[in-house]
Amino acid sequence: MNTLPRIAIYGTGMIGNYLGGRLHAHAHVRFIARPRVAATLRQYGLTVSDLHGHQQYVAPHALDVHTQPEAAGDTELVLVTVKSAATTEVAHELSKVLAPGTPVISFQNGVRNADELRASLPSHRVFAGMVPFNVTQPEPGHFHQGSSGDLMAERSADLESFLPAFAASGLPIQLRDDMQAVLWAKLLINLNNPLNALSGLPLRDELAQQPWRRCLALLQREGLQVLKVAGIRPAQLTPLPANWLPSVLSLPNALFQRVAARMLAIDPLARSSTWDDLQTGRRTEVDYVNGEIVRLAMSKGLRAPANAHIVALIRKAEQSYVRQDADALLNALRTAA
Predict the structure, then answer these.
(1) 20 to 30 A Cα–Cα from 294, which one of 38, 185, 216, 323?
(2) Mean of pLDDT over the chain
(3) pLDDT, tens digit, for every residue of 20-33?
(4) Cβ-contact 177, 155 below 8 angstroms
């Protein structure tokens, strides 16, 4: 009988709790959480569900929940799911407790997290990963997957032995040779995260409205121009190549719904992580999404004014949240660009 792998989830927010809940029946999962999150799990247990009807519950007594990094010390795989701003701190903590050679996967937003982890974990095997779907928390201890897609991670023989546990959990991992291109492609899609937050609408409702899609198309066009100058070619994560998406997003509603039906295959209540952060008073990751386009543009002697405008709006929203009007925002972005 095979021994279940020991997997640590380092950072139990939306993604971490969801991954840990799905993996629970097929691995020994250790949750390393902030005290507030740990208290919630110990009180309510952990429920995970998805838009396809899957639902499972793990009782509080069955969860292995910790608040200190030492709990990751004897695990065989670590999934880092903290916010990007905490990556360097987490890497420093893990460097003190992980056995040399322990594989670590960064399942975080952004394009530089794996490199930041590697810098502090030179004796470990660090891999970039990507989570394609959205997760929300409809109630304490309940984490719901609101869109579809397979996990992705850098191809390595070091990860092969863990793939069966992920597949059995309903979380198959695609191993890729082009993860940096994957991360940039995901970032282009995530340029919608702050727009969704500013709209105040569920994702599906926002994307059903042409003015919001045109805002996203403008941000993506700007990002694609910067990537082209930088010599970065994003991977194709959707049925259409990344450079086609702005044109499709700009289509009239009826035509968009026919052409991009899969893009609207989202749970009716799903919202972006940026919206969740604003509602709970957390600092958002906009610097690691739209801000990453701005940073890359500056490094090439360019400007990315539309994405910079969105970064500024989200910074204001972190202090005082105000919903935006789509037409007014589109005009502002066009003026900025």
Answers:
(1) 323
(2) 95
(3) 999 999 999 999 99
(4) yes
Is beta strand 64-66 parallel, antiparallel or unpaired with respect to 28-32?
A: parallel
198, 313 contact by CB (below 8 A): yes
Whole-structure pTM value: 0.94
Distance CA 24, CA 46 (A): 10
Nearest alpha-carbon partner for 23 in 74, 66, 63: 63
Q: What are phi and psi for residue 56, nearest 5 degrees?
A: -145, 155
Residue 230 sits in a domain whose CATH number is 1.10.1040.10
Contacts of 11 (CB under 8 A, 6+ apart): 32, 33, 80, 81, 82, 83, 86, 90
Which of 127, 153, 176 terminates a domain? The answer is 176
CA atoms within 13 A on the CB side of 310: 38
One-letter amino acid at 192 equals N
**Segment (H or E) for 216:** helix 210-230
Q: How far apart are CA 210 and CA 196, in angstroms?
A: 13
Residue 74 included in any domain: yes
Report whether pLDDT(196) > 90. Answer: yes
**In which domain, by residue range, is 136 found?**
6-176
